[in-house]
Amino acid sequence: MRSLLFTLISLVSSACAYLVLTPGNANGWTTAGPNTVTWQMVSTDPQNFAMLLVNQDQGILPGGQELLAAVVNGSLLTYTVSSPSGGFPVGTGFQVNFVKDAQDTNTILAQSGQFAITQSSTTVSPASTVNSVTTSANPTPTPTPAATTATDTGTLNPTSSLTNTTAPGKNSADRIAAAGSTSLIFAALAAFIL
């Protein structure tokens, strides 16, 4: 009877040769991750499998198992496991099981060694945004508007207009005052020269 059992176990082992490399006793996980599972496979292994986190101590992992991935492509040989919103529970005795699929979790294709999940030493901080300014090699200077003054040609021409350019945003009273003060300056200069 024992030899028959040993033969059956050998046949099952040769048919499904997935071998989980990590995690294991020497390299566990942290609560926040990132946590990676790596493995080896042979051509006779099923192409896809489901991945479970298991722990016999249901005080640590309620229900005894948690689905990590419903479908994993075995040829990838590595898979990064996303942590749940509250993080993984802290404890020992965890294992990763490769099972036939999410509905058949009792058909185990491979199982990792036992490992611990420890509290993450890093905290996740909100992402910060950095504003960047793009400059060209030869920036074009921004032209500064030249100050212009009203000139009196001495003749009145109904078709021409006298333009006084002032800084944007000034009202009409400011423009009149500026034009008036310019005229006074010219009058004072003319009187001084004469």
Walk me through what this model shows.
- 19% of the residues lie in helices and 26% in strands.
- It has helices at residues 2-15, 172-193; strands at residues 19-22, 29-30, 35-40, 48-55, 65-73, 78-81, 91-99, 108-111, 115-118.
- It has two domains: 2-118, Immunoglobulin-like; 160-194.
- It has 194 residues and is of the alpha+beta class.
- Mean pLDDT is 73; it is low at 2-14, 124-141 and 147-179.
- The strands form two sheets. Strands 2, 4, 5, 7, 8 and 9 form a six-stranded mixed sheet that branches. A three-stranded antiparallel sheet has the order 1-3-6, with no helix packed on it.
- The relative contact order is 0.15.
